[in-house]
Amino acid sequence: MINLKKLVGTGVALVTPLDENGSIDFKSLKKLLSHTAKGVDYYVVMGTTGESATLTKEEKESVLRFVIANNRKGLPIVYGIGGNNTQNVIDEIRNTDLAHVDAILSVSPYYNKPPQEGIYQHFMAIANASPLPIIIYNVPGRTATNLTADTTLRLAKHENIIGIKEASGNLEQCMMIAKLKPKKFMLISGDDMLTLPIYSIGGAGVISVLANAYPTIFKKIKEFFLSGNYKRAQAEQFKLLEINPIMYEEGNPVGLKHLLKLMRIGNGVVRLPLVSASAGLQKKIERLWKR
Length: 291
Description:
The chain is an alpha/beta fold. It is built from 13 helices and 8 strands. It has one domain (8-230): TIM Barrel (Alpha-Beta Barrel). It has helices at residues 26-36, 57-69, 86-94, 116-129, 140-143, 149-155, 171-180, 195-200, 215-226, 230-238, 243-246, 254-262, 279-289; strands at 9-13, 42-45, 77-80, 103-107, 134-138, 161-166, 186-189, 205-208. An 8-stranded parallel beta barrel has the order 1-2-3-4-5-6-7-8, surrounded by 4 helices.
């Protein structure tokens, strides 16, 4: 079992850089790993931001192997394996080489719109089968079904479920989890702009999109908060206030990939059905980036 302290702070949901032909751009991925290592506490490979929905199993595993091979700081690695077919998720976990992986991030089942009992049984089955600890992921904006605080707290009793990435945007729901969860269970923000609020109610940090571009901001939020310098932590959080919503105007990671392109990491290419940032979105991002 992983020492949970290793996952306190910022996990970066890594993008998957692509070349002009749509193949994985490992050179840019190496550059991204070096850039993010300046401030993050762990890597999250094959989350939504990594375009996991449009990569093959072989591509996902090649990215994982590359991150492991180029993880010069030896940061913990969380790997995304999720879906809406419970048995397929279990099979993928069993058939993936998870050496050097510390935990699995698994999204709540989407499209099927299961009831809370179905979500509960889905994660229980995965947790019982997995050789690694599970972080469950609640993102109702994508799954169409909210994982309630009651269901989360039921799942938190399982020894192999160590936390939740909470992206409901419902701070009251997060507070209920924080109040009643077991001590060993981590509440992790799935929303960059709720990083500081989640810390303030006893959360363990964030799995972040914008940490791809701004790892040191998230490092400072954590350090200032933990040292009791709340005003400076707040000032760091506010630096993201204008750029954050623009990242999602045309789908994640479209805006982020253009922002990284401005930083000379990758070229902004995404896979269909996503398309590269429009001229209008590019101008918005460039205007804020130049400030």
